[in-house]
Structure formats: structure tokens, C-alpha cells
Design a protein that fits this description.
Length: 292
Amino acid sequence: MNRRQMLAFCGLCASGTAGCLSGTPSRPGSGAEETTADDGTETTADGPDETPPADGVAVDDIAVRKAVRYESSMGSGGVLAVEGRQYVVASVRAPGDASASDFAFRTDSESWHPGLSDTVGARNVSVAGREGGPVGRGFGGDDRSYLAFEVPSPLSASNPRIRFESGDSEWPLPVEERVRLDAPAPRFELDSVDAPEEVSQGETMSVSLTATNVSDTDGRFLAAVYWPTDVIADDDESHVIERAVAAGDEMTASVDIDTSYTTNEDGPVTLSVRGHVSAERDVRVRNASTPS
């Protein structure tokens, strides 16, 4: 039984509640390590600390991203790319009684607590390739988890670091990440979204979009195309588009969407795009039915 068949069964027997799943679902492309910086260059993640400090907490693989991809325990997660915001992410090993409130991202003048705004799906299980769930809410007893801070962009900061507030441990940002923290983010404008006006449920639907990097900064384009899956115990399916785009350049990308689990009734549904660009398109669905 594949993932969608399983979720369709859960939707029929449990009215689509998040409680019908446990653990971390397998999903094509999930758990992929993010190794591309915002300027499109390849980066190498640091390995975990060999010996955690005396307080039992280790933080590594710290990075700054102008936009992030995340995975969720329901649905397929998506993309966060908010103008004027950026994200400091890290992998963490911590005791089971640790919580997100034990950590802060600090500079010499300000501090921020962990947390991400406006994500979809249930509990996030990966952000920017850092896996295991947020600190204090991991899966399967694994002591690996992640931290994700949403901070202003750009941010000129003295002594930026992640601090374990319940102890004396601090982890400074690597030099290249300090530079990125204060760097401008790329900006993209949507040129077009092409989607069919109608589709027969069960058909594969192709959607394409074109966007231009209108800034003076080379960068990484990120956006998620969301399509409803109302007949399964799931949130809307997301299809992430990720491309390195030089300043002033245009990019075009397309995704193929399975429409088998869209709706129980014929009628219009909303295709949406979120990330560096945003859009909505109504698509009329024909021949809708509950899949067996």
C-alpha cells in the first residue's frame, strides 16, 4: 500500500485526523540535505560534535538561509520565503527533557527564540535538511532534532551565536554564515503561471511558472506549488521548485501533479503557489470520486 492509499484509508476510517499517523512518513525527496547556499554555490555541512559539552547539548551544522524548505509529518511541507526575514538553522543533540525555550539566537544587542511562522501540515520534521523534529518534539526517541530561528534580513550583528540558555554553552556562527546574515536577499517577480482551466480527476496535470530575479543579488529561487488532496487524511500536496538564478535572469520550471485524490465533488479547486512568489489559480475538476 503506497502513501496516498494509506492516507486515503485513514481519511475514510478516521475523518482525516492527524492522529491516524505515527512516526515520520516516507515521501519522495524528503530528508534531502540542503547543500546549496542562497548564492547558488555548493556548501559542505559540518559534522556533529564528537563530544557534547558537560550540559549534554551539542549544536552543529549552523547555517543562514534567506528561504527554507521544510517537511511535515502530514502533507509535504513547503517553503518559507518571507520578505525582510531570514532563517538561522542548526542540528541539535540534546537530552529528552530539553525544549525549544532552552535556546536562543543572540547578538550583543538582541535575541530571538526558536520558531517558524506560517508553516502548513502537522509537526515539522525537517527544516533546510536538518531533521528529527523541533527540539523537545522529536520522533522515535532519536536525540537528533533541529533549531530554526526567524530573524530580520539583512541583519548586521556583533557576535551572532546560538546559546543554550539553561547552561553555559554557546555556538558562534561560522564566518561565512555571518557574512550571509548581513547580505541582501535576492528578490523575484512572477512572470506567469500556466495551469489548465479544467482537469479530469486522476489525470496528471502539468503546471509551469516563470519568474525573474529582479535584484542585484545572485540567489536561490524557492517556491512550493500546492494542490488539494481533500479525500485523504493529509494536507495539500506540495511540489517544491528550487533553482539557482543569477541576478537579472529568468527561470522557468514545471511540475506534474497527480490529481487522483483532489476532491469528492466536481467543481473548482484552488491551485496555489507560495515562496519567493505567490499566486492562485482556479482549476475545475471533473469526474471526481473517492478512490478505492
